[in-house]
Amino acid sequence: MDLPKEVPIYQIFIKKNEYKTLRDHMWSEDPVPAKLKASQKQYDIGVAYRGYHIRKLKKKSLRLTIHSPKLFLGAREYHLNAEYLDPSMIRSKLSFDFFKDIGNLAPAAEHILLKLNGSTIGVYLQLESVDDLFLKKRGLQPGQIFYASNDDANFSLITPENKIKHSLEAGYSLKVGLKEDFRYIRELIYKINTVPQSEFKNEISNLIDVNKFLLWLVGIVCTQNYDGFIQNYALYRSGESGLFEIIPWDYDATWGRDIHGKVMEYDYVPIQGYNTLISRLIDVPEFRQKYKSLLENILETKFNASYLEPHIFSLQSMIRPYILLDPFKSKDISSFDMETEYIIRFINNRRAYLKNHLVDLS
Fold first, then answer.
1. Per the structure, how many domains does the chain have?
2. Is the CB of residue 255 less than 8 Å from the CB of residue 223?
3. pLDDT at residue 2 above 50?
4. Where does the source fall among the domains of life (predicted)?
């Protein structure tokens, strides 16, 4: 079978005993040693499973740490997402491309075909790690990066289960920075929840880049990532401006499907989104009108089927020959083929819903 050249082939080699360790300690964050062969070069790497519910599935996501040479394609760490529950295998890629297209920060994402010890284990999405090298590639100032590692990262003083948080930084892990830098997260969460509304506009403008947060809100509301409001994001605090930006992460549960791959109706997430920070931002008339203006513009120019269709079909046609080689996906190629129509139908319905509810932001 002739394969298009757009999708790279990666080969990982793990010794038998190390592979057994990886499988027997599924929840361990400690990587096992391995070799990566890609682009006619070989690298010493570490391999660990990543994610939460995906670890329980047959096709698991992986985290690669590069040891020698120190960098692979300009990074020291990559995430290989199985995208197992996404029938289209393109939702994350489509989401990150959409975020970048509307002017938001987002990790680079590219499909690959992965082989393990000589056997093909399927199509994966290679996802760039959001770290100091992520910032450097984009010419951004050094700063702190925090990952929203669970749903306690909801910008509130209370957990989603309505319990008082044990700490203001609950839900966050530090990716770049020092332990004492958690003080910035504590200040952010404290002020979001305690500053009087009369002072909120000025106070929050000294903590976050409001325009970029509103762009992120447009992106997540359009793609409808339900979990992304309280996790599945990173916070970058610029060392120069001292302002936070938000970066999307793990976007396979989007474009009309939930984390289990089941249908999520186009009107499930309201136009205002949800979390404590968004509620307070939208309560400021100037910010609410700014959000409305941004959303109106993107609904007309970027979030519509005629604009997105070419990219959707291009992604599908590019990876389809490789899906036929994926032992976990090839038997259900008909679902893969039909999923683009489902995504386009979601875009049309979601866009109509959002346009009809713009009045809610008046």
1. 2
2. yes
3. no
4. Bacteria
